[in-house]
Amino acid sequence: MGYPGIWQILIVLLLVVLLFGRGKISDLMGDVAKGITSFKKGLKDEDTDTANSDVHSIEQGGDADKSGSVQKEKADLS
Fold first, then answer.
1. How far apart are CA 14 and CA 5, in angstroms?
2. In 1-78, which ranges are E strands?
3. pLDDT over 60 (residue 76)
4. Does residue 36 come out as left (phi exceeding 0), alpha (psi in the -120 to 50 range) or beta?
5. What is the dihedral sign for C-alpha 41, 47, 50, 54?
6. Spatial CA neighbour of 26 closest among 15, 13, 17
7. What is the pLDDT of residues 9-52, one digit of tens each?
8. How far apart are CA 11 and CA 17, in angstroms?
9. How confident is the model at residue 74 (pLDDT cuts 50, 70, 90)?
10. Distance between alpha carbon 14 and the CA centroid of its chain, in Å?
11. What b-and-e string marks burial along 54-69, b requiring 16 or more CB atoms within 10 Å of the CB?
């Protein structure tokens, strides 16, 4: 009961292609790629929004404790 051999993997792949068809598999992989791209874009937008709101509150002379904690958080991230 070891690892599957190359022939076992090829048979499983052949069965998957026969059951789902090449078109459905490529559509599924395209959807996965779009999801990953959307996820990365969301993370980038969240980082940008967080940085902008922190700078905005400091520029308006926010609480000293809050600006100190923001600077501490930025130092911790570095």
1. 14
2. none
3. no
4. alpha
5. negative
6. 17
7. 999 989 988 888 878 888 888 999 999 999 999 888 887 777 77
8. 10
9. low
10. 30
11. beeeeeeeeeeeeeee
Residue linked to tokens 């937008």: 45
For residue 77, give both structure tokens.
């991230």
| Chain centroid offset of residue 56 CA | 27
User: Cβ contacts of residue 4 below 8 Å, gap of 6+?
Assistant: 12
Each domain of the chain, given as residue ranges in start order, spans 1-48
Q: How far from the centroid of its chain's Cα atoms is residue 16's Cα? A: 27
Amino acid at 53: S
Contact in structure between 25 and 17 (CB atoms under 8 Å)? yes
Q: State how far the Cα of 34 lies from the Cα of 29, in Å rounded to an integer.
A: 9
Under 8 Å CB-to-CB from 16, ≥6 apart: which residues? 25
